[in-house]
Amino acid sequence: MRLRKELGLVIAFDMEDANLAANFAKDLRGAKGNFAIKIGRTLEMQTGKGIIAKIKEFSDLPVIYDGEIADIPYISKKIAKNAYDAGADAVIVHGFVGSDVLNEIGDLGQGDVIAVVEMTHPGSDEYIQQISEKIAEMVEEIGVDGVVLPATRPERVKKLVKIVKKAYVISPEIKAQGANPGNAILNGADYEVVGRAIYEADNPKRAAEEIYKEAIGRCH
Fold first, then answer.
1. Distance of CA 152 to the CA centre of its chain
2. What DSSP line would sit under 72-85, residue for residue?
3. Strands (E), the chain
4. In a domain, 18, yes or no
5. Entry pTM
6. Considering the domain boundaries, does residue 209 fall inside one?
């Protein structure tokens, strides 16, 4: 189940409680909106790659494996293949590792490849932001399926989407690091990523629907 280039919300499953994650995945069935799930290392490390298949089965939504893949082509390809084989529809790879890594994973033909072009935290200014436009040019030429751009810097989203034209854009750190729902989408992102503000809520499904409605509502 590939992600579509249309407005939506990616829910970051960064919790460490596997039972909480499984129950939330079940609750998301029938949620009103265009949703996908992103499984990070914090959850995967609790139970192993099997959590990917479980979340996929319970939710029936597109699942992104955010393994922060950043290694040589051989190792990166093995990590990605394990994630795809476990049920992931997409994997996130750091763009700074270069075209050979992205091509190796893309050649698997098992799911979407999403490249990190620029990150959200202040430390990324020290190195990554200085080369992010070159990364954007490279991933556009390769033809990755998606890119990650920082919701905390909507002006950067606006600038970089002019370079990366074909891929869908997902933008993390809505709420947790201060970005407001809809900010990134208004500047060219397709999906915004929300984690703690949803899964730590008293009613996570309702929180997901409300934040989705808020973000998409600002664009109409």
1. 15
2. -HHHHHHHHHHHHH
3. 8-13, 35-40, 63-69, 90-94, 112-116, 146-148, 168-171, 191-194
4. yes
5. 0.94
6. yes
